[in-house]
Amino acid sequence: MDTVKVIEIKKSVFEDNDRDADRLRAELKGKGVYLLNLMSSPGSGKTTTLIKTINLLKEKLRIAVMEADIDSDVDAVKIKEATGIDTIQLHTGGMCHLDAEMTRQGLDNIGLEGLDLVILENVGNLVCPAEFDTGASRNAMILSVPEGDDKPLKYPLMFSVCDVVVINKMDAAALFDFDLAKCRANIAMRNPKAEVIPISAKTGEGVELFAEWLLNEVNNWKNK
Amino acid sequence: MDTVKVIEIKKSVFEDNDRDADRLRAELKGKGVYLLNLMSSPGSGKTTTLIKTINLLKEKLRIAVMEADIDSDVDAVKIKEATGIDTIQLHTGGMCHLDAEMTRQGLDNIGLEGLDLVILENVGNLVCPAEFDTGASRNAMILSVPEGDDKPLKYPLMFSVCDVVVINKMDAAALFDFDLAKCRANIAMRNPKAEVIPISAKTGEGVELFAEWLLNEVNNWKNK
Predict the structure, then answer these.
(1) Which of A85, A216, B43, B163 has the highest CB neighbour count under 10 A?
(2) DSSP class of A18
(3) Tens-digit pLDDT string for chain B (224 aa)
(4) Which CATH number does the domain housing residue B168 bear?
(5) How far off is chain A from B195, nearest CA to CA, in Å?
């Protein structure tokens, strides 16, 4: 089994997270590194989605992953084994979110030299991570079909801050009476600009659309 | 459509939540009211499980529900319509959990006279609600099959503080390669005393076991 580096994240000392996040975003831009902050509920399929997406992109982009969890390294090991790319595990020590300074601690441990894209898999939680700007270039979230098409009504901030909403486990839509049109309308109510990409990480359907969105994003970030 | 009372919860001023929670638990005990704190991820099926459980118990116990959400009243209205019992909606104003004082604000608005059981549906979040004692007689959680059998590894505190873990959406176990034995072992690692009750709120299978557990709990609480 592969082993991954495990970083115990320390609580931030900065009081003004928004300013710190803007500073980090500018630094990353200067280095040509795109940072994607990926958020979701526990069990939405973030890890499987990432593995399939990275395998579609790893010949085109130099990618690293930071896997944030309260405990355990299972996801980081899984990603490293399935993709071969650099992956580190961030342990939040019980903290329910990451902020910019905590993200920076992870980035310092990866080393950004030569990278195009860093993906931060945030703590599985639809509430707190939405409140803290990590300094990412863009925010993405995965909503999974079994969670229900009404989630944008109940977790408004999360849907408001995300540039793209990936809807995963579409292969189970019939079993869970999931109404994609209703879900799109609920997302649009919170965030009319959000891209919505339905996929099934299990069957692979639609994953290439998310990979394409991400590739365009990274290329635009470098060239603007 | 039924309407429900909506309470905007205020942030607590108490610094010592544990002491406040013990005080609330003792007050409830004195009044013969059992408070169940029900936690889970977003979309685990808390509301459907509650509706079926309440319909099995409402002739035997006088029950009220407090439905906590960051926003929206959809679940509270659904429970009131499907069970006919008293239901109020607590709006947390963006807060990711409830503590004892916030729970008390809800209880004051229900009125405890004549009640046997109050069910608090906590904010959908596997992280923060586990950190705050609400003053409940017992903590329960619902883990749903699509979230995966590895969740006890990733959210250790939540599984440690729960007296019972209901595993919902068992009808979808095959589709999601969910291993119940592995899940039981993972739960036992965090909390060897936790009861584990597999159910499907959709088909109704197993819900009577959870209802029975709860009925015994309430009766023991009154008689001890």
Answers:
(1) B43
(2) H
(3) 567 777 777 766 667 999 999 999 999 999 999 999 999 999 999 999 999 999 999 999 999 999 998 877 888 999 999 999 999 999 888 889 999 999 999 999 998 999 999 999 999 999 999 999 999 999 999 999 999 999 999 999 999 999 999 999 999 999 999 999 999 999 999 999 999 999 999 999 999 999 999 999 999 998 87
(4) 3.40.50.300
(5) 21
How many residue pairs from chains A and B have C-beta atoms closer than 8 A? 109
3-state SS, residue A83: helix
- Cβ contacts of B47 on chain A, cutoff 8 Å: none
At residue A80, the 3 state secondary structure works out as helix
pTM: 0.90
Q: Is-contact B165 B197, C-beta < 8 A?
A: yes
Q: A42 in contact with B at a CB cutoff of 8 Å? A: yes
Burial B161-192 (b: 16+ CB within 10 A, else e): bbbbbbbbbbebbebbebeeeebbebbeebbe
Q: Which domain holds residue A177?
A: 5-10+18-222
ipTM above 0.90, yes or no: no
Q: How many domains does chain B fold into?
A: 1
Q: Which amino acid is at A197?
A: I
